[in-house]
Records
---
Amino acid sequence: MASTPQTLRPPAGSIRASRGRDSMGSWPLVDRAAYLVCWVVGIGLCLVTAGIVLFMAVKGISYLRPSLLLERPNASPNQATSGGFLDPIEGTLLLSAVGIAIAAPIGVWLAVWMSEYQRPAWLARLVESGVEMIAGAPSVLLAMFGLVLFARPVLGFLSQTSAGGSVTGKSFLTAGAMMSLIALPLVVASTREALMQVPAHVREASYALGKTKATTIRKVLLPSVRPSLTSGVTLGIGRIVGDTAIVVILLGGTPQLEGAGGAPVLSVLRGTGSTLTSYVRLNSPAGEGNAHEKAYAAAFVLLLMVLALNMLVMRFSTTRNMDEPSRWRTLTGSLPWIR
Amino acid sequence: MPPPVRRIVLDREPSVVGAPPNGAQSATTTATRPATSTLPGTGTPPGTGTPPGVPASATGERGSGGIPAQTQPSQVQERMRIEGVWLAYGERWVVRDVSLPVRRGEVLGLIGASGSGKTTLLRSLNRLTEITAGAARAGRITLDEQEIGEIEVNSLRRRVSMVFQQPNPFPMSIFENVAYALREEHGERGARRRKRRSREELMPAVVDALRRAGLYDEVAGNLDHPALRLSGGQQQRLCIARALAANPEVLLLDEPCSALDPISTATIEQLIVGLRESVAIVIVTHNLQQAMRVADHVAFMHLGELVEYGHSAQIFDHPREQRTREYVSGAFG
């Protein structure tokens, strides 16, 4: 009579349990030391990150009042009357919108051209290094260039012209234009990377149905890379939200949104203002506002915005069906309308 | 439910009805031609070449089993003709002086080892080779007696459609995948005056294409579901439906089953045999059993040359060429 499967066992004493990895005892000393460094560095980084977030959270929450989010700032040396930071929040949102509205379409166009056309080759190489150069340029440099560029009388319609006829070059439009440059490389890189992952036979399948290249890009390729495109755009917004130099130099630094007059929307866009970053800088102990409590509160709000954007990116880039082997499916599996 | 196993192929007769015994089994064997005469464009069209020493029994008198009458194509009609075609990528001629007929009512199988040029030849039939920089062609390929180089490329590709090795539905719904093939391109005749065709307008054609591809019953209730959620075999049948949607005259299949499981493969093979009635089919396959099961005529290519062309049964049972014999018996490849 055979034993039942439950009682069937190898002879006792012959079982060797696997520990999952080899024991460090057999490693050379150098490897053990290097392994230890990995641990120290990894834990250290986590501690620094946690420290920043916790410090900002404790400070921020202790100073944050609902009224701060709803009151407009005043340039006052007295903290009691200097108001909240409603305008900087609005300024951050407005500047991000302007910047990404310029960067997203141009970035997608560039990415499509660089991955699907690449002709002439020398121009493609030139554009590629140009994008890389912008990605590496300090934003303060872009801001200075923007100030020189937009102060030209021809471009006066983008900002305000003073009574003497000189153009300020400072407005949401000019700052947004320069902000689009720092978001552009992220949009280009993520879109292009995703386009290069779409297999050649998918394009060919569309051509084989008698479709032109333009239709293929519009109807097949861009929908396929939508998740990557979205996360590129989100990362770009994150860069804009966090940048200070361009705001300080090109947005005018007025605490409140100050319109340039004229048509309602255009007036604000051509006007000056501030963002959370410039507000924090101004009110921090390093600035002249001398309202460091409000600076902490504003910095906390800024941190929350950036963290929220990062989580959005993770949501976009995490695919929902990692079990499917083909890369093409992993790529398209995260498309919003596929569930 | 797995589809029933198809007929025993070794017992089947050549399915070309009414073809003269000699004409049907004639072959262009470039290997036997003197090298000096194999200039581009001078290839002898098949059917006119002299069959060198074909035993009359090679293809004609097969076993008495035969294939069921309903799967017999009612008529065979030549749609495309490949005449002395040479194809190159850069300096390398990967297809050399190949001549073949492509007929509606039969399946033409292209077999051969990797690098034999069969996929390149297939892709040249709808000018898909042209998207590769440096690709060149010599010789004539005609569709209904018109040189394909003179047909506008996008309308050619609607008439000569293609299915690929990997199932590649587009990231849209099942309905949209098929409808995509039906929508006219901008600049196409009449497209500008007509507005984008509505779903109701396209629905009958979409349903018809899905029916022809044997997929409709499985997806009828969820045409709006994403195509990428279908199984691999269903995805490939959707690709076939998409390729059939614009009513092409020729359907090119590039190893359509190599990424699929045996059951899906059997379903698609059955589908291919059923479709040859209405559309000329060319299939590239590495799978000799598959070529035996689905192809009516088989062309064996080796290193860019057409070694042997003939009825499926003849190629597999009585190959004339030594290289064919070695390949079909598994000596190389």
---
Amino acid sequence: MATGGGLMMSDVKVWRLLLKTMILFAVFNFILTPLLMDEVEKVSIYNKFIPGRLRLPFGEDPDRSYNLSLFSLDASFASHVVSDPGGPSDAYRVFVFGDSSLWGTLLRPEETLVGQLNALDLETENGSPIRFFNLGYPTLSLTKDLMLLEKGLEYEPDLIVWLVTLESFPRHKQYTSPIVSHNYRAVRELILEYDLDLDPDHEDFIKPGYWDSTLIGQRRNLADIFRLQVYGIMWGITRIDQYYPDSYEPAQRDLDPDPSFYQWEEGEMETNDLAYSTLEKADQVAGGVPILIVNEPILISRGANSDIRYNFYYPIWAYDQYRSDMQKLSIQLDWNYVDLWDLVPEEEFTNSAIHLTPRGETILAERVSEAIMSLLVSSPSVEE
Amino acid sequence: MTVQDVLVLIGLSLFLGWVTRKGQRQNLLLLASSLVFYWMQPSLPLRYLSFWLPTATLLLVILSWVCTSSYQQRWERETIQTAGFVTLIILLVGLTRYVGLGNLFTALYPPRLHRVMIVLVFTLGMIGILSRKETFSNAALWGLFSFFLLLFVILKTPYFAQLASRMWRSVVDQAPALASAEDIKWLGFSYLAFRILHTIRDRIKDRLPVSSLKEYLIYILFFPAISAGPIDRIDHFLRELPEGQSPFKKDIILGGRRLIIGLFKKFVVADTLSMIALGPEKVSQIQSTGGAWILLYAFTLQIFFDFSGYTDMAIGLARFMNISLPENFNKPYRRQNLTQFWNNWHMTLTKWIRSYFFYPLTRALRSKGAFSVFGVLLITQISTMVLIGIWHGVSMGFVIWGLWHGIGLLVQNRWSTFFKNRLSKYELPSMLDPFLSGMGTFLTFHYVALGWVWFVTPHLSQGWEVMKWLLGVVS
């Protein structure tokens, strides 16, 4: 009997249909997904059909920012302009790593430090254009930066600039960034390969099991990768990659009279409580690519209790101790290091003690570009 | 509607499809449809309204049946039983407040039972008094018709909707100053009103088929078609309601296939396209003509896949229960002119409007003889399309959208007549056919797509802004 849909009812065996469906699903779930997932994460329409993003994907309000946070490093880098094979072949590629202040919270891509550095149209001594890439990511963790740095090496940097601040250093913060905790394998390999002074099996890691590699386990990851591609179309059309509110709560100027930094009071914070060792291994991870470390500007408040704290994040004693330690280490380990902590005036900070206004970024870009140019001049090998 | 909601409805439809073959078909369909009406009513900021709106739906449906049925039918034993059954359903939902299941059927806790009972006693009492009337005059039926239209206008007009919200807030001791036009979202009212208006109008014309209160309630409230139609006709639905001979297995396969297509259209294609579809918030973000066209194409496809996906799901769910709902879409974007487009887009709505507005208005204007053919076409086409526009909401954007299509239909009608008369003398080479039909499809699709600009943008300035980007005339 023919049905309205032209289907021969007698031909349809429901159990056979279900069995075939189950077999097909099992093949996709248990075999194809675990085998192909790594390759799938690298598939991207960015830099092919739509322009690459100027900063790594991050966003908590995708409908308005046309951007989203995902955990796949491959997919994140594939969507970034850093993986664009085009562009001048003789360009001198500078990868800049850091936190949200570098990524550019509240700033349009061209207003960020990297945007402003690119606008300077710098050239090396032999005339190669210097191209800067924003590889900042809005969480505070040196381990997160190092993980991204290692990943970034696949895209052939000539120079690495790493902006750091004390808030990224406490040991307990190294694993809590979601992009770190969800990249257990990558971070674990990093810790073991370079003998970082970190726990490779820390409880904050989300440790994937076999089921996590199946189609069911990867559904969130796959959906995120897919959405990243679709939102890329909106990025291409609007050049918007974050939501810009009409107003924001300014960073706190009047501070609590609290002299502690996390669990530490003055005199209690040991060098070993901070992840200096992660920074020390950066040279080794970079494998010969020179690194310029920049202590990024912070808001120095003139409000209530500014004799106790510099800002919401830092009591004066802790930050001064950190600066002193960094200075010593930079001499001891021969780092290319610039300390720009007090470079930017108080009024050029936005909603946090490390987020700058476009004007603040301009001030910073001038000093960072000077540091880069002097590094290139003083170390000819860097340019080669 | 979320995927979880659809999964619940699939389970319910399959269960009903199986169990109603063993008997109690109408009782179970009525129970399920009534409860789903409560369950799907979204949570509202107005106190207890998420309970009262579905309750009002049930009572209004009973009222409209009373007004459209015969005296004899009203006092039949089955009618009293059905009315009692509906009252029990309302009380059952109201009782969930007291047994810790206040969110089982309603988004928020129902009001206290004594209030529910007072309202029920009063309303059913009034309906009972009305039922004693031998017959309702056409004037009374037109009054009821106008009442539903008035409700419709209140809900669809931001000013009146806000006013209604303010009044409700005053009654239930909520801050009237916080009233918003978005406060009152009455699940499925648009479709419900169309079905009720259709029965009232057919009753006035003496062509309404006889239906019991139970059948009438199931027709109006049939849950697969609550949120997005289709708008079935009562005569067709009554033919479908008795259990047919189709085996359950066949219904599962046919319904399942349709359901999968619907789920894919809605939750994969449409929801993906919605991420890049033109919307009011995106207007100021457009930076290029190409970008504007991508947004517009995305919306054009999204609205089709979204709407037709819901229709597919409704048809699939109904099929599980051995009920065939009418089709609503038939490849509308592949049509070669605007008339064909409207014959294949939201077909049940256009048929409804044609039957109850366009044809009567055309007949009335022609009978007066005061208008030329063109004049009649001008008035009927444009007023019909503006009416369809306003059905989506009383705003200038929807009016312009209606005008856009009304003018388009008029121009296309005149153009076709003009060329048909002239070209009929010549025989065009058949090799031109694919080109001409392709051209027709291309032009129709783009005319419809450009019309969506007015549909999407609530402010004329925004619509105009998008048009300028699309036409590349932004300085």
---
Amino acid sequence: MIEQNLILVLVMLPFLGAVITATLPVNAHNAAAWISGLVLAAGLALMAVFHAPVAEGRILRGVVQWVPALQLNLSFRMDGFSWLFVTLVLAIGVLVVIYARYYLLKTDPVPRFYSFLMAFTGAMLGMLLSGNILLLVVFWELTSVVSFLLIGYWYQGQAARDGARMALIVTAIGGLCLMVAMLILGQIVGSNDLDRVLGSGDLIRAHPLYPLVLALFLIGAFTKSAQFPFHFWLPGAMAAPTPVSAFLHSATMVKAGVFLLIRFSPALGGTEAWFYAVTGTGMATLILGAVIALFRHDLKGLLAYSTISHLGLITALAGIGSKGAILAAIFHIVNHAVFKASLFMAAGIIDHETGTRDMRRLSGLMRLIPLTGTLAIVAAAAMAGVPMLNGFISKEMFFAEAVDWHNGTWLDNSLPYLATFASIFAVAYSLRFIATVFFGPPPVDLPKEPHEPTPWLRRPVEALVLICLVVGMMPGTTLGPVLNQAARAVLGPDTPHFDIAVWHGFNLPLQMSLVALLMGALLYLVFARQIAAGPEGPPLLHRIRAQRIYERLLLALSWRLPRLLHQRIGTEKLQPQLRILVLLALTFAAAVLWRQLAYATEPLANPLSPAFALMWLVGAACALGAAWQAKYHRFAALVLLGGAGLMTCLTFAWFSAPDLAVTQLLVEIVTTVLLLLGLRWLPKRREEIAEDQMLSARLRRLRDFVIAAAAGLGIALVSYAVMTRPLIPNIGDWFLRNAYKEGGGTNVVNVILVDFRAFDTFGEITVLAVVGLTVYALLRRFRPATESTNQPEQQRGEAAAALQDYLTVPGVILRWMFPAMIVVSAYFFMRGHDLPGGGFSAGVTLAIAFLVQYLGSNVRWVEARLTVLPIRWMGFGLLIAGATGLGAGLFGYPFLTAHARYVDLPLIGQVPAATAMLFDLGVYALVVGATVLMLIAIAHQSLRSARLRDQDTPEAESKEAA
Amino acid sequence: MNLLIAVTIGLLTACGVYLILRLRTFPVILGLTFLSYAVNIFIFISGRLAPGLPPIIDKAAPGYTDPLPQALVLTAIVISFGMTAVLVLMAIGAHLGAGHDRVDLRDDAEAGE
């Protein structure tokens, strides 16, 4: 049990460190380094606790339920393999933190660096320890994202930004593929549990989807560990600060890919496809990386390609998949992490001390920085595979596996030659690193005078090089037990114990090593000059660069293709878009309903009422007339629209929807007023336009007419089909049964709005508030056009004087009506819960009461006597509705739970006092506010334009006078 | 009666679609109003035509019509008014900004209508 919790602590610890370091001051170098270092050291201490149970072969687990329905739990497991890997990550992490403390400049912002580093460590640990394949993908993606932030730490530089983006795009695409692969795997196995998946190898390999899963999985793993052809992001990521490179590209990020390959080799491996894909890619990467590394002039570039090459080696071993190969792969993961981290750090010191990483400018540094030089030389020798160093032993094991017969395919047979060939180049580039940087004539013209760095910058390198030496000389006693433990965890408990020794006799692998050492040295000595003088990359090949292909592709996909598509199929005009929208809707509806639209055999009968038919005859005439006249006779069209609206309202009334009828009627009024106000500011269009009689315009109208007729016909058919079918029992029945019992109201529609579906209503009134504010915001920058600022004809000239008081009588009547309308509004509101009415219609009624005052009287007169603050109405309305909802929370009910009861009031009698009523009050206030805001804001424009007119006239007069 | 309402919805839709395809702003606004009539009635009739059966609980009532479509349409009516208001404002703004009242501000190929 305690181990369970400790695993969770282990995963959470780095994230906690990330949060703490993120909150430190910008220049707290020491504090951040101490906290990060201690966090990682604490992790290492935990690993020491885990060692004993893991060594017994037990699998430790820690599980937190997360989304059980999706089988997605925070489940972590630790076996020998992940123990080794986690320890490696934490140990290198501690050294990187020490190194970074002395590497970063005083001006570099500290919290960002250390918190990203900690978060990255946490993501990496989570990935390594995940016991659930979906959780693994989550942490996998997290490493991609955080590595993007780390690589782009010096975001001021173009190279850092580009490198970070490239790394993110490549690894995130891989992560996406991996996610799909894992989802399919989970489906095949029937569980997302890692143990179940790893144990179902036969099932997975026999499944028809196996090739797809394998391909997606490998893309994920290959992108992460920079395998050919996805290797190009890794050199680009060298723009990161050196501690980041040392961490990401030795022990963590890129190793995640090979970790996955080895981890899943029991589940996915063992087939011919796996061997060809994985070993083939690994060998190609091994050779390509080694060859390119020899020709790089940049120190970190050389190391980057060397990393790619070594990752290829590990991948190739994972592809071979024999027990010895897996052990060798794990061993090489550790060895490469150790010597590559020390080399990156050494390269960082050289860069730090000399100011350059160009090997053509560096030379003879052995005299100036002998200690660093010695360390780097030992590490580089380990990289080359010189005997008595750790790199040698795992390389020997690789050679032994290459020589061994596995499946007799051409790839298997050619492995020894390919391995030796790559190794020759590995020796050559290591030699080049040593020879050019540390030997030769003293350096000239360096940006800085090199000195030995501060000892603490060197300590991590010393520690790592010491490990290289110790492991190289005593592999069996130092790493032997944990390696066997790790291999058993991957391959199963019946794996034999491997004896790892330095000396296996003068066998074939040793001869291959010697050939590689000799040939590599020869290769470098012969071509040293040409390489230094040559381009940045191998001859011929340097022109074909994967990075450039990637950039072309990115440009094409993210820039050219969208523009091309936009040119071809896009339009910036609204009308064609609307036309396409209507046509698409028609096409899809037709495609779906074709031959499916069956009419009921016994249609619901509804005897035709002549009065109603006559009514709609008028309505139809109104609609057609409005469509006909909308262009030139806008006022007429508006009146006709109102006619059609009125028919709609009567339809609601006829078919038992009193609430709708009332609301429609009231809204019809405000809509008409709104459109009238709008017409005031739109250009007049009475004259006939000659172009309208042209053929093209006629054709366009005909086309639109056909589209409209088709749409109308379609909707008519669908509605007829709907109406003639019997109503299936639905949720409406439930509302009818429970409206009174649970909602305390007899008007079911209102109870639905303010009680059962109050949350929807709350959303809708919020929309209304947003709409009101939008109108208000649009009007604030409203400046009337000059042609509209003139007074309307009716108000000008001699007629104006006569018409001065033409609305006096209606105005007075409307003023008298004002209190009556308020009472009507209150009446609508109060009875809403039981009878037709409610917040919406009452709100619109009150808004109309305000509005008619504006219509009947002078705006200034009204404003002087009546202050309406629509925005406050809206605000309070929303607040009341929201507070009512929250109030339910005080009594322990969910949001917007209503309570209903009747209260006896003196004189008035029984009054419903449901909390829903309070909610309805909010709706009411908001509707009043929004409606008044929209209408009065537009109406106010005449005031403003009058003011503008007043301002303009004196100016114009003064001009004339001048 | 069913047929009459179906024809009515179709007619309102056709008028609405024809008007929203016009090139000037005012017809487009009218068209959208027509469309909202049509859609509201369409949603409403999905509760079927039931004269004389208002969904108001009463012991004497012979039965009730489906209240749910009515609740849906009620808010839709008010919101469509809000939408019309925004459109009117946008039309006015476009007219003031561009000096004409065409829907497509950068329309130079298709003049007229």
---
Amino acid sequence: MIPELDYRTPETLEEACNLLWESGARAKVIAGGTDLVIRLRNKELKPSWLVDITRVPELQGIEEKDGLMVIGAGVTHAELASSAVLKRHGKILSDAASEIGSPQIRNLGTIGGNIVNASPAADTVPALMALDAVGEVVSREGERRVRLGDLFKGPYETALKPHEILTRISFQKLPPDTGCGFVRLARREATAIARMSVALTVRIGRGKNRIEDIRISVGAMTPTPHRISEAEAMLKGKSPDRGLFKEASQKVSESILRRTGLRASSSYKVPVVEALFIRSLEKALGEVA
Amino acid sequence: MESIAQRVIRFVLNGKGLQVEVPSHWTLLRLLREKLGLTGTKEGCGIGECGACTVLLDGMPVHACLLMAAKVEGREVQTVEGLGSRSSLHPLQRSLIEHGAVQCGFCIPGILMSSKALLDRNPHPGRNEVKEAISGHLCRCTGYHQIVEAIEAAGRESKFEARNPKSETNTNVQISNVSNK
């Protein structure tokens, strides 16, 4: 059972920041709670306070602003999955969010919670890495912007201080002629944590048969998220070609192995991630065909 | 702590306004079952993987085992107890019974709530839409086939049938459903 604690629901960002500042490391921010409540239940975390930020207005909304998509950290996965504007300008994130958990989980779980929980298997994270997303972090000490990749220090560990709140995530709108491919592998179709995932965006030059830009990130396979720059460099400027894709897929598996070292699961994961990469690439190219 | 932190919450439960004091660390599931005596909502896993605890929050299916009770302040909660009764079955309840979709019954309250939410937003779902709607539910008894058929069939019936439980179910008649609110 969840240990006793006090529960606060601030109505403003200022109130939330003050509560966190005053309680120091004894408080934990709660959004939907779909990850946090489980960790409370098994006594992995024992905060004296929960600060519920779901009623803070600055953490809501999916907006377009000066060529950027700006998403409140409190936006749920269900909202991401159904947002028409996000599907138009950041479909990779919408696709990733739509495969999280179950309808019930998606109705409560938030993008901010997914990031801050910092599970290596978080589904929105590879999509956000492909989007070069930036987070806004707010506290009593002020505001700062952090590149998403810099937020993760290790599994379940972020660079956020206890009194800080991730408020917004923003990224450049995807240009037209960009296809998105998110592929996820898990034990079941729903309600199972991803074992392996690939998120990529690819832009084909209009009228050209050439990859103008490609961004690749993988999920659930490395302790912290990263972009597979070797595979990106190999494919950029080239024409789509099966042989080239196969070579690039090997760059993907090599990149992962460099970070994890050889493990018992590697003999399974290496050929599978190469196949998932090709699948997501074909999915993305299919969107711009 | 010397005394357990409590919180007074006001919310609408199955259409009725309610005010209740609850320990701050309780989930909605615990509140429903242990304080309000509404044991229709079940705890199957306690970690949001089986769907047996599913209730509707502002019309959206959620896992009550993961929802801190304090979060329902000012909101609407619907549980299986509010869906229908023996004397007046909801069309979904009747359809599940008629299609042989209920064995031990443990998964059923949760599935009913997810299905109700589905029919409220999409009165005539296709097979894949039904499967997607119940993708967050586990059933150990039936193999899901009869459950999916029952929900699809309920989607083909009119709301009028619900108020007249003795009438024959006529699945050939397509009457557009008024969204159930």
